[in-house]
Amino acid sequence: MDLKNYLTSQRQRVEEALAQTLPPKQQHPTQLHEAMHYSVFAGGKRLRPILMMAACEAVGGDIENVLPAACAMEMIHTYSLIHDDLPAMDDDDLRRGQPTNHKVFGEATAILAGDALLTEAFVVLSAPSDSVQINDRTRREVIQLLARAAGAAGMVGGQIVDMEAEGMEQPDLATVDYIHAHKTGALILASIRAGALLGGANTEQYEALSRFGKLAGLAFQIADDILDITGDQEQLGKDIGSDQERGKATYPAVLGLSESIRRATELHQQALKALEPLADAAEPLRQISHYIINRSS
Amino acid sequence: MDLKNYLTSQRQRVEEALAQTLPPKQQHPTQLHEAMHYSVFAGGKRLRPILMMAACEAVGGDIENVLPAACAMEMIHTYSLIHDDLPAMDDDDLRRGQPTNHKVFGEATAILAGDALLTEAFVVLSAPSDSVQINDRTRREVIQLLARAAGAAGMVGGQIVDMEAEGMEQPDLATVDYIHAHKTGALILASIRAGALLGGANTEQYEALSRFGKLAGLAFQIADDILDITGDQEQLGKDIGSDQERGKATYPAVLGLSESIRRATELHQQALKALEPLADAAEPLRQISHYIINRSS
């Protein structure tokens, strides 16, 4: 397979589905809908939806069945970026080279656009569906997966510990592990698990993918931390060294650069090993994770 | 029935269920969980959960089956209050006589506590359940009801139009209707509909309660607007005349006080008429709505 073509075509599928799923920009109240569209269509890589689709493929499922959940996941991810960028949080003026939501629409609208994206994700996940393959039980389980991953025991919990850690003298490894497993790892894992569930995974397949999701999610995050030090600005989409400047709790800050690289490589090897039972069907997942890890080298 | 005892005992049931449902305050990260508890247990009337329970009773359902959804509704309501009070929104320092969430925990934690309460509501709604009466289809429908009522086509949509209208010279009736039907009416209606669904309503019962919910929700809001002018401060829990001072789009501002009173009374009469097919089982709903309307006189 040609990974570049694969990523491009999957990204297009997600973006078409998102365009059909979000309330139209012209719909009253337009200010709210424009702000939602602005951040959803601000040029994301659609990594989480693509991982969800690849996990579905890995168990021989039909990608059509995961598109609504893939859109919901991207809406949750986008809401988290809008709220993270707010003046009271990271106070960022730019995101992927564009002005952040509150810079364009004002703080109140940005808060509400984030709130609406999070809520609309659950509208999408619970909408009546024509699919005969996805029953109400599976849909409830997917809602449970995504809500847990996004909530206090997941992403929001990770975000608050991340903020607290910014003030620490020297964050310890347990804190960095907690932040990464929750702030970013939880949604990555939930994407892969939701893809498996909606693809009709059996228990063995679900467990293999869960193991892959945990290991790869952590490897991706260490790679991201490394990229903040070694990458170039274009690759990164933000200023080089910005984590260091902010005193962010990162792996290189706690473990040093070479130990971080060693750890990312080892976790990635273990993640690939977890995919062995899925044989060739997991090839897209393998190549996506190679691609994410190797951005940092 | 003695309404005061009824309201007290229902409120206690909701509060016990909430205490069991929210992640414990002592749980890591404590800052987040304390902020969530602070606003959830800040002395609300639990109007929406009590309406949900009363709608369930009105169709002969078992209240045990609505308690999780009643908690979820109160969590959504509480998140909306936390975000509404933020400096970028209404910038309120007090809520029910107590410092608002961001005054106690800071703005970043208040935003995240709101985000977490909204998300945890969907964790609760989609959690595995022992109830044999509530199947996964009904639970999916309840999630759909609550998410739609809280999202861009409901509460968040109403909130943004409310903010926009504060700047208007003279808001028109259509704008005031939109704000009230969405910002507050949608969650009231969804509470009543969820109670009906979870109580096992047939189509006729569901439609009667939906009609009641729409009419009563609007009547409650007009009564609230009137109370802002005629009530005393203790009854209101906020400063008298604060809507007027802010140039809020209210019914008295558009229709005048006496026409607003006439309209609230008429809507309330129609709401009670909608309950006729439910006979005696709807007595709690009738008395609750009398109580809400008559606070304003």
Layout of strands and helices, then pairs:
The structure is a homodimer of 297-residue chains.
Chain A (H helix, E strand, L loop, with lengths): L2 H19 L8 H11 L6 H12 L8 H19 L8 E2 L2 E2 L1 H5 L1 H20 L9 H15 L4 H12 L6 H26 L4 H28 L2 H4 L5 H5 L4 H5 L1 H18 L8 H12 L3
Antiparallel strand pairs in A: 1-2
Question: What attributes does this structure have?
Answer:
homodimer; 297 residues; Farnesyl Diphosphate Synthase; two-stranded antiparallel ribbon; 71% helix; globular
Protein architecture, described:
The structure is a homodimer of 297-residue chains. With 297 residues, chain A is mainly alpha-helical. Chain A has a single domain, classed as Farnesyl Diphosphate Synthase, CATH 1.10.600. The first copy, chain A, is 71% helix and 1% strand. A two-stranded antiparallel sheet of chain A has the order 1-2. The model of chain A has no long low-confidence stretch (mean pLDDT 93). Chains A and B meet through α2, α6, α7 and α8 of A and α2, α6, α7 and α8 of B.
Classified in CATH, the superfamily of chain A is Farnesyl Diphosphate Synthase
Count of discrete domains of chain A: 1
The average pLDDT score of chain A comes to 93
Oligomer: homodimer
Shape of chain A: globular
> What's the total number of strands of chain A?
2
Separation of the first and last Cα atoms of chain A: 22 Å
Instruction: Give helix % range of chain A.
Output: over 70%
Annotated CATH topology of chain A:
Farnesyl Diphosphate Synthase
Beta-strand residue percentage of chain A = under 5%
Derived from helix and strand composition plus strand pairing, the structural class of chain A reads: mainly alpha
CATH architecture of chain A: Orthogonal Bundle
The CATH class of chain A is: Mainly Alpha
Strand order of the largest sheet of chain A: 1-2
Number of helices of chain A: 15
What is the succession of H and E elements of chain A? HHHHEEHHHHHHHHHHH
- Could you give a short account of the major beta sheet of chain A? 2 strands, antiparallel
Name the biggest interface. A-B, 51 and 51 residues
Radius of gyration of chain A: 18 Å
- Provide the low-confidence segments of chain A as ranges: none
